[in-house]
């Protein structure tokens, strides 16, 4: 029992919940899009632009703010302030009376949320036992972003919006973050956030990071991963309600089922990577992921659709391996946060900023099935690129 209640596990639990709240706030607009679109009369292009807005400030802040925090040994302070400010920014989304104000609130949310993910992953990398590096990243994703952001999030937010309206739901979503900020301030040890190296030895530059082949490959995969994810997630609620005729509650349950898939995948896939290596497991599950968006379009209305989507979504389990574990095992510890921020930031800029906007335009022009074809193409390209990864797991 004493071993179970050690600092490593306590930190993992605390940061997983914090990570989950970040993702509830991030995807709240997506899950509530049927309500918001109806109220504010949003087009698919505008919906894609709102997703892109958060991603661009998330990406820039994720890299530059994290780099500043590492260089100045202020990771814990920056982390706590970021949690407080993105929680406040989340509330502002509920005050939006039009597209412009909603766009501004999303830009602010992305700026404040950006550093949280690379800092959380750098904290976990610092405190992880050598035989649990991949698994801990998977648990962080599964019981953090997945359990809260992709399982509880759609069910809870849709239920709240149905009962109280979408504006009030944004108010509810911001409150828990303030509580977690206090808990993180009390619990996280200074040694978790600080480096032992001297300031002069810290923080590899942008060009130095890109000299590592795995960082370059991870950057490309991040762009394709985020395209695969956002092209689907941004337009799935609308696709199910407008094309397949689901009511909002049915849509929420379907999105929640994908949360169950990613919850299992986050532990299962990362544990397999600890046993068999990062590269082979990544290749296998990216291949499976190609069929996720295709099953949405081609199995519409069939009983096989949900099982195929469920299995295809296991590609999500490769995210913590490629975006967290591989960079942390590739570069020196004092630059892990910056490396993770670079990899995640590049993915956000391409897959989170450019592609949702492009997919929105294509959806307005060719129909709501267009983003899912883009998603499948991204997964196929990621499969090809993944063969260039250099194995990082120590045997």
List keywords for this structure.
395 residues; mainly alpha; Growth Hormone, Chain: A; 80% helix; 0% strand
Number of individual domains: 1
In total, the number of strands is: 0
Briefly note the CATH topology name: Growth Hormone, Chain: A
- H-E order: HHHHHHHHHHHHHHHHHH
* Named CATH architecture: Up-down Bundle
Low-confidence region ranges:
197-201
Number of helices: 18
Determine the N-to-C terminus distance: 29 Å
Biggest sheet architecture? none
Mean pLDDT: 85
Broad shape: globular
From the alpha carbons, calculate the radius of gyration and give it in angstroms: 19 Å
Q: How much helix is in the residues? A: over 70%
CATH superfamily: MFS general substrate transporter like domains
Instruction: Determine the strand fraction and express it as a percent band.
Output: under 5%
Query: What structural category characterises the helix and strand content?
Result: mainly alpha
CATH class, named Mainly Alpha
Describe the structure.
With 395 residues, this protein is mainly alpha-helical. It has one domain (7-188, 207-386): MFS general substrate transporter like domains (Growth Hormone, Chain: A, Up-down Bundle). The chain is 80% helix and 0% strand. Helix 11 (213-243) runs antiparallel to helix 12 (248-276) and helix 13 runs antiparallel to helix 18 (370-386). The longest helix is centred in the middle third of the chain and has 32 residues, at 133-164. The chain is globular, with a radius of gyration of 19 Å.
